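debug: dumping io for the single-chain case to check the tokenizer round-trip. Nothing else runs in this session.
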Amino acid sequence: MFVEPNMKSQHHVGWIEVITGCMFSGKTEELIRRVTRAKIARQQVMMFKPALDNRYHSKHIVSHDANAIYSQTVESAQEIWQMAQAQEAKVIGIDEGQFFDEAIVEVCNALANAGKRVIVAGLDMDYRGKPFGPMPFLMAVAEFVTKVHAICVISGELANYSYRKVNSDETVLLGETEVYEARSRQYFFNLETLPTKRLPSQEGDSALESCL
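debug: decoded output
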């Protein structure tokens, strides 16, 4: 369980928190929860989301269970820096971090260095099971990383992957349950139907032996 840092002892120090996982895992819900707690504590908060994500509302961040909070819609990471500085916000929430370019990493670092608490939520992997956009870099520089899980629609076990149900090769394809479903490793890779494969390190064994 994530334990929020002691705000009193670190009031002059900024940091980065990353909330990540597959689709339907509660990332945005957790982001809203943390930001709401900060607002209750009367800390000045600003929320941001990329203009690309307009699935629910153009000016609100909305979780899959319909929790919502007002946010600023931005075209680029640089806008987050400019607007946060102008408003002197202490807590910065950013949703759908995977849709930003790598400049978001520099912006989040700059905000944290300026004494702000930065909370970013986003997908860790795309529909192929590959690292998604700047999220791996954000996780690397963050002080706190929380990985949340969904429930596999097939097995009922913990799900870590976002399975795309439609035929499309686009990396970014917005959609909800009509396009994606959460799956466990077993059913994302269909492990029960795949033949046993040698590990990549084993494939070169014969060639290595011939050189010895």
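debug: round-trip ok. The longest strand covers residues 15-21.
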